[in-house]
Structure prediction request, 42 residues.
Amino acid sequence: MEKQSTSEPKEARVTWLQLEAWIREHVQTWIQQVLEEEVTEF
Prediction:
């Protein structure tokens, strides 16, 4: 039986970390904009 590895190559991990950082940044910006709009509406 052939042994299979579940670990990702280093390049894939780096890509996922970069993607996660990019998503976090954009979500934070979006949430901040929503909160600012909510404050100015009331």
Observations:
- DSSP finds one helix and no strands in the chain.
- The mean pLDDT is 86.
- The helical segments are 10-41.
- The longest helix spans residues 10-41.
